[in-house]
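Assess the record.
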Amino acid sequence: MPKRLLRFFLLFLALLLAPRLPVGDRLLPVAGAQAIGVGAQRAPCIIVDGKDNLYLMMSTATKTAAERTPGSQIFFTQSADHGATWDNFPVTRNLSNSNGEAFGGVLAVTKANKPKFFAVYHDTAPGPTQAFLLRTKKGTKFRAPKNITPHNGGAFTPRLALDSGDNVHVVWGDTLTGKRVAYLRSTDMGASFSDLVDLSRSTGNAFEPEIAVAPDDSIHVVWEDDASGSKAIMYTRSTDGGANFSTPTQLSQGAGAAVESYIAIDTTGRIYVSWSQEMEGAVQAFFTRSTNNGGSFSTPVNLSQAANGDVRKTVITTFQDRVYVAYNNDNDRDHQAYVLQSTDAGVSFGEPVQVSDANRNRGRAHSVTMVVDSRGTLHVVWVDNSVLGNEEGFLQYSQSSNGRNFSRPVQILAYVSK
């Protein structure tokens, strides 16, 4: 029997024989494995490179709940066989190695033959929560994390995108002076960054930005802003590499609070934006698109149409004329993750397809992330917390060749060296 297969068998047997652990523990010891635990996971992000290798980043608990000390790190694993296996065993890679709470990492990869990787996340280790950058020298050999926050204030949920020249564009929710959307860029592969720019220019609170770069290298950013008295989704763009941005415009409509926006751009330059918005006593997934590089957007449509819905955390990915929108429904009678598919570039969508199988009596599925490879296969990852019974849980993975039929979910665990 091959050594790797033997290790998996022994670990599986050890887990079966291990005593039952209390629900809510953030780091579960692996029986029979010296100094190894299984960390609870949140906030996954999955991407694919030009050779269809998959890369997955997540926030992982590295200390037990009994220790009553925060311990969350940025972990990383990859698959070279279309998601069949991952290199997370026997120990999953810890990229942040922080003594604080490192959380919410997102990944990006260059399009070159020898790809380089970039990631951002926020970390409490400096005192105030600040934004950090990870980048690779070669392949997935990451350099030490670099604090890219240019002040002593807070920097939350950073996001990044790369243009065709491998310039790095970063946004985050900044709290140095109120809440605003901050932007900065690097033209030397992350070695240095420009001065911080306030994109939101708001009289209210602007937060939770998302960013995407179009094929023509125009930069597009969305976020939530409460300057109008109710939270709304705002949008701005730059057509000169980030030197200047347009006056922010509102994409959401109606009086209901609109939050948790997401933006994606396909290979033709069509822009897609989604968000969650209150409507008639429920929260639904809304969607709009632009076919003229952000010059105008279509009238927002309610994609979820969920009775008594509590729809959260929409995300988008694209492949040719296909557009996929995913979300989780936190309604007490649901608690599952869904994917909708459009085959006409977002003009119309089919019915939502449930991809998760969380135990509704114990928890829910949430925090979906997804990507499509060059073969058109959709890869979906989410958190299932019905095992642990709190916000943290274990990552589940599924894939589909047509957006309608999905493989049986399998766990991708984070093995932590204690």
Summary: The two ends are 28 Å apart (CA to CA). The longest strand covers residues 130-138. Residues 3-25 have pLDDT under 50 and may be disordered.
